[in-house]
Design goal:
The complex is a heterodimer. By secondary structure, chain A is α+β, with helices and mostly antiparallel strands. Chain A is built from three helices and five strands. In chain A, 44% of the residues lie in helices and 21% in strands. In chain A, helix 1 packs antiparallel against helix 3 (102-134). By secondary structure, chain B is mainly alpha-helical. Chain B has a two-stranded antiparallel ribbon. In chain B, helix 1 (2-30) packs antiparallel against helix 2 and helix 1 packs antiparallel against helix 3 (94-127). The longest helix of chain B has 34 residues, at 94-127. The chains are: A alpha+beta, B mainly alpha. Chain A binds chain B through residues 6-7, 10-11, 13-14, 18, 21, 50-52, 58-66, 111-112, 115, 118-119, 122-123, 125-126, 129, 132-133, 136-137, and chain B through 15, 19-20, 22-27, 29-37, 40, 42, 72-75, 77, 94, 98, 101, 105, 108-109, 112, 115-116, 119-120, 123.
Chain lengths: 138, 129
């Protein structure tokens, strides 16, 4: 793990974590209508697991950011639909729909993009403060 | 020399602490979605008075010693008490953090302006114009 020295590291990692979250939402929504012949092969919604990354000597600097620890597939039951004419249907005539709740994904997307914006806003505010501080006394 | 330093001292220390607090609040905002993260903050007034009465970790025991300038960082990081605790154990409340952050940014700019005025005042005194 690289050293975390400044606000730029904090915001950059937080934004890339939120971007990973947006990527999983995109994958989930893209696969929302995919089907499978067995519950195992059917797509299940992906979620990133966030974990706090503390800077060294966090009690002095107070710096901490967030990283994606892992990406897990949610343990959900795929929807079982009776469709014997479907090419993917199994012997009993059932297909399995991907376990993705599109409404939930939309909420997830909004939250992730809001938090991405928050981090960007903090970064640009602090950047302009730094510029003014650099020009102190002029 | 000493009087120049002391005329800038309060605002320099305040600016330093405000900068530190900005970083702490930014860390809170970065962790707004992390389960079990506990929001941190410092009490600005106590930290500032602590740094003003004893600026830096080096002690002086002789009148000819030069006191150390600059803050080494907040020494007493505290945990924020959430008004509305959430289920995942995260104590960051975005509205609170954003409000504190914007206030802190304004106060940082105020300290910066004070410093700029002091510096231009000193400059015109030195030039004697």
């Amino acid at each position: 793990m690289d050293k975390m020295n400044s606000i730029f590291d904090v915001a950059a990692r937080a934004m890339s974590s939120q971007m990973t979250r947006l990527n999983t939402v995109a994958s989930n929504l893209a696969n929302a209508n995919s089907v499978g012949s067995t519950p195992e092969e059917t797509f299940k919604a992906l979620r990133p697991v966030f974990a706090t990354q503390y800077a060294e000597k966090v009690n002095k600097s107070g710096l901490s950011t967030v990283d994606v620890e892992s990406i897990v597939a949610l343990d959900r039951e795929p929807g079982k639909v009776f469709a014997p004419e479907h090419p993917k249907a199994n012997e009993q005539g059932y297909i399995f729909r991907a376990a993705v709740d599109t409404d939930e994904e939309m909420v997830e997307m909004l939250e992730a993009s809001r938090q991405y914006q928050n981090n960007l806003e903090v970064l640009s505010t602090l950047r302009s403060l730094m510029m003014r501080t650099v020009n102190m006394g002029r | 020399m000493d009087s120049i330093a002391s005329s800038l001292n309060v605002h320099a220390q305040a600016l330093n602490l405000r900068g530190k607090r900005n970083e702490i609040l930014a860390s809170n905002i970065a962790n707004a979605a992390t389960p079990h993260f506990k929001a941190r903050d410092i009490d600005f007034n106590t930290e500032l008075s602590k740094h003003l009465e004893n600026s830096g970790p080096l002690n002086t025991n002789d009148a000819r010693h030069i006191p150390q300038m600059g803050v080494t960082g907040p020494t007493n990081l505290k945990y924020r008490v959430p008004t509305e605790p959430s289920l995942d154990g995260n104590t960051v409340e975005l509205a609170v953090e954003q409000m504190q952050f914007s206030e802190n940014v304004i106060r940082y700019q105020a300290s910066l302006n004070f410093l700029n005025r002091r510096i231009s005042g000193l400059e015109s005194a030195i030039k004697g114009e």
